[in-house]
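Please predict the structure of the following assembly.
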Amino acid sequence: MKKVASVIMVGFLLLLSACSGGASGDGEGSGKSGTLKVGALYPLSGGLALLGEESFRGAELAIEEANKNGGIAGGKKIELVKGDAVDADAAQAEANRLINQENIKTIVGSYSSSIAFAASEVAERSGVLYWELGAVSDTITDRKYKYVVRTNPPASYFSKVHVDFIKEIVTKKLGKELGDIKVGLAYEDSTYGTTIADEAAKLAKKEGINVVTKQAYSAASNDLSSVVLNLKKAAPDVLIAVSYLNDAVLLARQSEELGLKVPVFVGSGGGHTMTDFEDAMGEKANGILNIDFPQYQINREATPGIEEFMALYKEKYGEDPRSGHSLTNYMGMKIVLDVMDKVGEVDPDKLKEEALKYTADPGSTVTGWGVEFDQDTGQNKLGQPYVHQWLNGELKTVWPENVAVEEPQIANK
Amino acid sequence: MTIVQTLISGILLGGIYSLISMGLNLILGVVRIVNFAHGELLMIAMYISFLFYTTMGLDPYVSAILVIICLFLLGVLTQRFMIQPILDTPASTKIFATLGLSIALQNLALMTLSANHLSVKTSYQTSVINIGELAVSIPRLVAFGAAVGVAVVLYLFLQKTLTGKAIRAVAMQKQAAFLMGINVKRIYLLAFGIGSGLVGLAGALLMPIYSVYPTIGASFILIAFVVVVLGGMGSMFGAFFGGLIIGLVEALSGVIFDPGLKEAIYFVIFIMVLLVRPSGIFSLGKGAEEVGLK
Amino acid sequence: MMQLLSKQKFLFLFGILLVVTPFVVTNRFYLNIFILILLYATIAGSWNILGGYGGQLSLGHAIFFGIGAYTSTLLYLNFGVSPWLGFIIAAVISIVVGILIGWPAFRLRGTYFTLTTIAFAEVIRHLTLYFRDVTKGAIGVNIRFEPSFANLIFREYSAYYFVVLVLFVISIAIAIWVDKTKVGYYLKAIREDEDGAETLGIHVTKYKMIAMVISAGMTGIAGVFYAQYMLFFEPISVFNMNFSIEIALIAIIGGVGTVFGPVLGAFIIIPLNELLRSSFPSLSGMNYLIYGVVLILIVSFLPNGLLPILKSIPKKLKGLNKKNIKVEDGEKVDYSG
């Protein structure tokens, strides 16, 4: 026992001394060699890796582009340090690593809301500015944290577009009154699905739209026949679906098999946006509507810089962007860089102050969004998701008109 | 009408669960190993099937035999180099070794193949046979038919052939079997190989129904355990009917109660069956002691 | 006598080191790792009472962890109950749930017991998702950062460190108590041969239940701490099967059925996790691949964990002992019942 004790003790001492050594770090994360450090927290492995990485690519590209163009704030280069945040626990640890090991004062992220929650907690406590560029849970900014800013629209904006689209377009196309339209909801039961669906149901009710059924299911389901059959019984005119990829494919295939025919099927990003979805469904995907962050079949005039982004992406990764997540994160990162350019350093308080002053007109950014941050919550109020439709294998923007490249095609049955 | 359609969907889903579980059941019954990496074997089978499809244009149904062979070999190698060395260790070691294998394989797939969801496009993927208002999905029906076929063939193989009898002997009493001159190690290799080969068949037949991605195994593994324990370890028909029961429970509870509750419901049923009849509904009760039952 | 003395000395030294840690380690990244090490050592130590001493390999301990987190947090958010009181309430509820699970599950052995605990954990996770009016469902629970002693929320990590240190010390004390009293001996007897233990007149179910009560209660308390430390959790982060696997793994790697095995395991696994994650930022999946392989190698070649190896090193160095490495405590474990 004595021997074990001494071995453990020596090990512990080594660990302790190693840790205290690292504590004195390499000073401020800026200045020295004319570089500014930015931390990036995305899920790069695990179940969320696909879109996590797609999101990360957007941030990475914005930084590479800025560095290629001579850096910011008078020639300072930006150094991107990434952390793999597979889940909330990892996000917490990685945020701590970026802040304390790498001396980073600005963190961007994160694709997933749970990662955003965990990481922003750490940032808030450490007084480090956390920029959310992609996660959609409303709560992230509703908490009114001092050091949290978000550039992308949250889930409730998705729900609003869902309801607006029904109000403005679906009623006309189907030739029905708003009160006669039956809406069904099918959504996966994690944060993403529940927030969008709950908010959409609330808004719909307020507008006097009849919500006939709400079907929550686990995204890990191997079978959605019960969801499909329940929907079939309710026979909605409009089906709002919120799905990840696996369940989006399953829902579409089983609807096809079990003969569920919904006049207007509207996805909410996630799986319904992915080219993998189109690959799996083939022509059966044709006509499926989808509300999401901006994609690439979009009015070029409303989204200046999008072609340059696509070229840059192709050059760097050897393939076309797999979804709009990279574009959204690219747009957000560019704002971060603009703000850093103006401040010239990474002081979180100065950055936050400058960020709140930052504005851009709608139609002037690569996503077509404007920028104006809510002074209390730090939420960009001028971002919005668009309505897309799968038409002949391409996801085309169909609404609102200023960004649309096609008219939404809804058959009046 | 909805209820009849639900029953059909449930039975077809049950066929899929049976198909996946029978291999697991054989491995658990004979080699006495709780293989947590079974789901990853399914994932590998699906990737191989996809590979044949993209490189040679082979339909998943056509390449099924090749996938089975690949998985058989993979199973034999796993048994020989990973399971065999730890056969005499405590159950915890085996559980954690196969869990480790599961984590390693999942992430190996993620590293090499990325998290993309890959699927094959077949002309029949959403085809149905319509009987009045009822619809029967063809790929699911094929999987169901295969499950029935496998259950029957495996039963005959285990009952009628000499090798099959040797496998059963090892499953029941490996010391006695050894004394009777049966090469236990070879039987283990064979059982693990066949069990994996069955997963290969499952993977091939699931390819027209599901997409493949690194974590797909995780969504099937717990269900497969439920099915095996429910049906009774070592009993092929048990695994088959266990699958059907779980499929039906899942489909019915989604329609009667709520789709969000179906997982909770079949796990509750699982717990109840364990308590009332721990050897499984269809088990003969043989050999259960060694895995921990009296 | 010699042995006892050195053990006390060791405990004393180890204690001092633990107390000075936050003064030496001021970097939050490292302090966070130390907090996690102590937290996981506490949980793995609690698991060890049931899974190590008692040989009941639970892979559902996330249940108690999650119940602890949800109980105290929902009470705190809805009724303003201080998490300090939450510790007690959470422990009580975890214990009640533990008894409700143990009562049927202890009739099963080995793998069947393990699968039952997994099934219970899945049921509870799905119910938490389903009843979202109460639990907030998948959205998870977010606690506002309002630092105060009563809220058990602190700006400084060192405060959290001392709280978790107290929990850790309690868990060690309980482990030593179990190890030295008849509870531990009976549990080991049950682990080695349940039927034999019963024949000898040991009330098997009673002692399994005692182990469950201790184990569930401590894990629930750890869940409360986790909630107040992270300030955000969701069903998938607290009722996660991977979490159950990880804590069992920590105990097994260190050495099950020993007081300090789980501690050693936590000191290895937690830093390893962080190291692997930060070492391969460009190869997604590489860290977990290595984790999986290490897991296979350790359980295959060192089924009794690392503690016995550590014990044998100094002896080997002295060349005292070549063939007779004595096994001192009850590290030899056979789960096959």
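Chain C touches chain A through 61 residues (CB under 8 Å). The domain at 31-318 of chain C is CATH 1.10.3470 (ABC transporter involved in vitamin B12 uptake, BtuC).
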